[in-house]
Amino acid sequence: MEINFMRPSTVWVGKRCYRVLNTITSDNAITNYTENDAYGFEDSVYQDEVECASEMPEYEVERLDNGKYQTSVPVASGFFSYIIGTKGATKKRIENDTYTQLRVPSKGQTGDIVIVGRDIKTVRQARIKVELLVEQARRKMPFTHFLSMPINSSSVQERFLEFKREVLEKFGNERGIDESLFQDPAKLHLTLCVMVLADDRERRQAIDVLNSCTENVLRKHLSEENLKVQMKGVEYMNDDPNEVDVLYGQVHALSWGLSLQTIVDSLVDQFVNAGVVIRQHERVKLHVTLMNTLFRQEKEGITENRGKERESFAAKQILEEFKDYIFGEVEIKEIHLSLRHTTANNGFYSASAKIPIGASCST
After folding, report:
1. Helix, coil or strand: residue 131
2. Three-state DSSP class for 225?
3. What domains are defined for the chain?
4. What's the predicted TM-score (pTM) here?
């Protein structure tokens, strides 16, 4: 794999961004997380060189009666194995490299990981190592929840079903196109961001952030104005119209006084700043998924990729035929913290929480 040392990848932990350099030194690579000076650990697969892109973060560290220092790191129990490593190897490396002690709850238990060290700096260094390991593990997990705006009015659903019927009639013989690709009309939605919420504590945190968006985002950008949008035209995610995995409907705010992009970006910023969401893009891509090759796998009983290649489809003619197709107008009334792979009584995804939009958010 070619490595671009001038534009290294980044890892976000809460509000902090770390630059990552993958430096191959042998059959394995080396992992160092550095701020003012170098410190690191090696895992069995690879090592990265990580340079902190901000100053040393401020953590709550308390001094114990014995003169040592301690900090507690909230970590979901599902991530404990990543911190411990095979036969405790990763935990030992962190402890040896930072001269600290990590106290991880026993198997089957929940709670914080407690770090104890001889001074504040080493305790903080160990904590950064733990948090980066958790974020690396989180990136490998399938997302559990997503922030959504339902775009599923009865009129839009009818137009979507008409779109589906026409696509299958006109282009059903094109490579990869079949009925399994299409979204459930009751689940049409604008996706703002996805997240991995690994335990009840993380879910409660996400719910708290969503509730805070009423005051911090909606009243600021919308006041009591309603949010009306139109879905018109289709687009695709990748670069080749004959090798498409996702085809989506384009969404636009109908009021010139509102910036839908600003609203959704501000909503996602709330979750990123709270450390609930890993930032992946500078701006939210406004899209309502209409066709997705993952739907085909899910309908075949494959809920995750599991190494199976997705079968793309040829969408060039669909894009030409429906470039100006009007799916309809919708007044978005709620923002949902939606649970993946679920269905509520109304046919939409089940919600862990939801908040109203527009005039209803002031009641």
Report:
1. helix
2. coil
3. 9-140 (3.30.1370.10), 145-362 (3.90.1140.10)
4. 0.78
